[in-house]
Amino acid sequence: MFKSKICDLIGIKYPIFQGGMAWVADSSLAAAVSNAGGLGIIAAANAPTEYVREQIRKTKELTDKPFGVDIMLLSSNADEVAQMVCNEGVKVVTTGAGNPGKYINKWKEHGIIVIPVVPSVALAVRMERTGADAVIAEGCESGGHVGELTTMALVPQVVSEVNIPVIAAGGIGDGRGVAAAFMLGAEGVQVGTRFLVAKECTIHENYKKKVLNAKDIDTVVTGRPTGHPVRVIKNKLARQFQLLEKECAALEKYEELGRGALPRAVRDGDIDMGSVMAGQIAGLVNKEQTSAEIVEEMFAEAEAVIKRMLSRGGLCQE
């Protein structure tokens, strides 16, 4: 029921991407999601180029299915990583925090499918003109760096303005979210927060427990004055960021407070002064499963939702 243009474009069974979460999305998680029939993604973030190369090669050892690399364009080594993915034969590149226009021709020459993350209609249209194969329309419900528009508002507007496939992201954590995304016109979904608690996800157990115990109102957006707002689960660090905002503190104070905060949470398990990035859907995530169980359960639920609506007369059948 949910086979889409994205499945045909990339060669995957289910139209689902695993989010390219910095310090989280490594070879273990990416390979597991790809083996489950989705698109696993390695996060390059600010990692050294050789580390990303190593993760690509490890993923190839763990799966023969397509996978991607997410490149943060503001990274100091973005140029190096952009070339390296060509050299390593990566099939898909997703991008964030910038415009990938200067790399697209090179990527296309190497047969790479390019799918930028966009927070607005204007950027989606620009990416299509630049040669992107699809876009990920990400709403502010998502974890990590966020825009201003919600998924519900953003996705249908992007779908209306571009001719390339649109993947919906932000606030999607079960089959109901998948079904809703397709109703909005999306050709696929990107999921981050639910994969944080996948058994193949290598983050610290403290981080996983923080997500599993989260309630619906437990996330907050911090750092708006910096121009790079981030959604996290509330903790001592988040409260200190909020105090900086109230004090109209200098940007240097934000940088000092946030330096190393994400790896502290992901690797060291510091859930008090670490940045526990997660989306608003965290309150719905309440069990640890394998990546395959997550993917299969989400699409089984989505199909059941659609069938239930049809049986009740909630959707018109031709």
Structure in words:
The chain has one domain (11-203, 281-311): Aldolase class I (TIM Barrel, Alpha-Beta Barrel), CATH 3.20.20.70. The chain is globular and about 50 Å long. With 318 residues, it is α/β, with parallel strands linked by helices. The two termini are 16 Å apart. Strand 3 (67-72), helix 4 and strand 4 (92-96) form a beta-alpha-beta unit. The longest helix has 21 residues, at 291-311. It has helices at 5-10, 27-35, 49-62, 78-87, 101-109, 121-130, 151-161, 175-183, 205-212, 236-246, 251-258, 261-266, 291-311; strands at 16-18, 40-43, 67-72, 92-96, 113-118, 135-138, 144-145, 166-169, 188-191, 219-222, 230-233. The strands form two sheets. The protein has an eight-stranded parallel β-sheet with strand order 1-9-8-6-5-4-3-2. A three-stranded antiparallel β-sheet has the order 7-11-10. The protein is built from 13 helices and eleven strands. Helices cover 42% and strands 14% of the residues. Helix 2 runs parallel beside helix 3 (49-62) and helix 10 (236-246) runs antiparallel to helix 11 (251-258).
Layout of secondary structure:
Elements: H1 5-10, E1 16-18, H2 27-35, E2 40-43, H3 49-62, E3 67-72, H4 78-87, E4 92-96, H5 101-109, E5 113-118, H6 121-130, E6 135-138, E7 144-145, H7 151-161, E8 166-169, H8 175-183, E9 188-191, H9 205-212, E10 219-222, E11 230-233, H10 236-246, H11 251-258, H12 261-266, H13 291-311
Parallel strand pairs: 1-9, 2-3, 3-4, 4-5, 5-6, 6-8, 8-9
Antiparallel strand pairs: 7-11, 10-11
